[in-house]
Amino acid sequence: MRFSAGNGAAASEFIENCKNVVFDPLGKDDPLPHILAMRQKALSLLDPAGRERNIKEMPGGIRDIEFIVQSFQLSFGRRIKEIRSGNTLEALEALSRFGLMTKKEAVVLERCYRLYRIIEHRLQLLNNARTHMIPVEDRDLDILAKRVALSKLPSDVSENFKTELSSCLQTVSELFDTHFKGSEPDLTYFVFSADRGLAKSTGNLLNEHIKKVGPSVIPFIKSIAFGDFPKLESRSTRESAKRNLPVILDAAARTPDAATTMKNLTRIIKATGATKTMLDIIASDDDMLRLLTTIASNSTILSSWLAGNIGWLDSLTEGLYEENDIEGSEKRIGDACKQKLLFTLCRLPIPDFGPGEIGPPLCEILKSFVTSLFRMHGGEGSKLAILSMGSLAVGDCKFGRDVDIIAVTSNEIPTQAEIETIRNMIASSERIGIARIDLRLRPEGEASPIVKTLGRFRDYFANRAATWEILAYTKCNYLCGNIETAKRFEELLEGWLEGISVDSVLAEKFLEERKKLETLSKGDWETKFARGGTYDIDYIIASSMLLETGLKRRSANTLQAIDRLEASGLLSKEEAERLKEAFSTYYLINHAANLHGFALPPSKSKEPFYLEYFGRLLSPRFAVGRSVKDRLGSLRKDVRTIFSKFFEALE
């Protein structure tokens, strides 16, 4: 109550008289039962929508905070005048200062009250009307969250708006029940106290684990325990979280980044629609905990696939999935290949497995993907053959990279149907989002027809093939389609490669081409184009194959090819080991980045996280004491030394 207009003296006298009545020193009645009855009556008058969405009147909303504060004022304001403020935030500070409310309680209520009032103001500005109804549609909630983010609230509140709103509503409800009904609080205090750095030593197991892994996991713990507005979790879920999250956090702490693991794990758990049950299962079943922690820590993208198709979890735990090429719709092909990738990659986690174990099965899945799209779009029965290029041809595939192919027909002119088959395959691959089919390695690049005839290939190889294509076509193998067309093309390709003589002139051209590629390097994180990158290794292998008699095309993966160079005496044992170490490191960094959707090279703001993440990820495999960037620099230097020595011998 405050003076607004009119006679100020009369207003002051009236307010003073009211205070004498409210804070009558002779009053003996306990105000709590009366306030609780008043609050319950107000709730009973709300319609269902109001109970779930009215930020002012709903359980855990503005009114509950005000009732808590006012009950303290009625109980203790008779003897402590300093707590009588009509401003809720000022009153909370005073209650804490005089020891009537714990500092943790005051901070929690202040934080929630500020959030509620900002939501209230943004709602009214957004709707140009007096309203307290929070929207429930995701689009409208996102708009509200962006408006709230413009306030001076902590960034974690605006970034995790739905989770923060849910945790506030349920925290305030818990504090209300604790104060008015004498119930025991659950994990609410501990999550918030860890969040605000207020708890010194609560003795609470969950809080101790939060401290161990760091505050970055708190938004995900809140999401699990409280829900994401408008879907709120029950008290039994919060009790389960308090009981089981220490086990889950302990597992997350052993991963390269606990926050990334908990973010992905939270998404999977909540996708089941049974948070409490999943928490109980994960914490009590070591195999389930290991499986989900592996997926969550290794890949944000695989985690999102599983969350979007949570029925796959049963197949994952039972080890069952479709083995053969999939026939049917685009969605069926995409889902089946995603499930194969999920099943395969969760059993080949980094750093336990490297490119020699990951690449071949990944390539087989992607070949199956291309074959299924080829059949779906009418390629079967035509004279069209698909040949794999690059890493797909030799078993070095990484997750999330383009699939390089070329399309060849034995017709004198490509038919419209053949062209449409390839166009539709490309379009489907882009919509499905597993790997984009890429034909840029075809002769004359993107400006040329996407389907080429045998005659055009013959002419091109004889008259116009670039130097780099000599090396590129050593990695070219049949994938699917017309086998007779493929055989004729392979005979043509073999004849061309067989006629190439590696001499000092050609070696010099190779080096010139390599220098051009070096200009595409993007800095210290570059593992492909830079001096000493994977192209150096590829050039060594491809050039050595051209020196040999017989088959000029690679079928072996890079690690196997390096072993063969050592066996043939073209590399020393030390050189071979260093090349394999370099290739494995380059491969795993890019594979891991793709699994999470990390962009390489990182921005300056992201680089510290990348250094920490990749350092922890790869340290068990390589036992490196220096930073990832330093390690990459050392490997590139050594690879370039081996590369230079190899080509000096050719010249």
Task: Quickly list its features.
651 residues, Four Helix Bundle (Hemerythrin (Met), subunit A), Beta Polymerase, domain 2, five-stranded mixed beta sheet, 31 helices, 64% helix, 4% strand, elongated
Describe the protein's topology:
Elements: H1 8-22, H2 31-44, H3 48-53, H4 62-76, H5 88-97, H6 103-127, H7 138-149, H8 155-159, H9 161-181, H10 188-196, H11 205-213, H12 218-226, E1 227-228, E2 231-232, H13 235-253, H14 258-271, H15 275-284, H16 286-298, H17 300-308, H18 312-318, H19 330-345, H20 355-376, E3 384-389, H21 390-394, E4 403-409, H22 416-432, E5 437-438, E6 451-453, H23 454-463, H24 467-472, E7 476-481, H25 483-498, H26 504-518, H27 534-547, H28 558-567, H29 573-596, H30 607-622, H31 628-650
Parallel strand pairs: 4-5, 4-6
Antiparallel strand pairs: 1-2, 3-4, 3-7
Helix pairs in contact: 2-4, 4-5, 4-9, 5-6, 6-9, 6-10, 9-12, 10-11, 11-13, 12-13, 12-14, 13-15, 14-16, 14-17, 15-16, 19-20, 23-25, 26-27, 27-28, 27-31, 28-29, 29-31
Structural account:
This protein has 651 residues and is mostly helical. Among the domains are: 158 residues, Up-down Bundle (Four Helix Bundle (Hemerythrin (Met), subunit A)); 139 residues, Beta Polymerase, domain 2, CATH 3.30.460; 147 residues, Up-down Bundle (Four Helix Bundle (Hemerythrin (Met), subunit A)). The protein has 31 helices and seven strands. Strands 3, 4, 5, 6 and 7 form a five-stranded mixed beta sheet that branches. The N and C termini lie far apart (94 Å). About 2% of the residues have low confidence.
Q: How many H/I helical runs?
A: 31
Reported by name, the CATH topology of the domain at 28-185 is Four Helix Bundle (Hemerythrin (Met), subunit A)
Q: Which radius of gyration do the C-alpha atoms yield?
A: 33 Å
Q: How confident overall, as mean pLDDT?
A: 87
The CA-CA distance between the termini, in Å, is 94 Å
Indicate the proportion of strand residues. Answer: under 5%
Give the number of DSSP strands: 7
CATH superfamily of the domain at 28-185: Nucleotidyltransferases  domain 2
The best one-word shape is elongated
* Corresponding CATH architecture of the domain at 28-185: Up-down Bundle
Q: Could you list the spans in which at least 5 consecutive residues all have pLDDT below 50?
A: 194-203
CATH C-level class of the domain at 28-185 is Mainly Alpha
Structural class: mainly alpha
- Helicity level: 55-70%
Main beta sheet, described? 5 strands, mixed
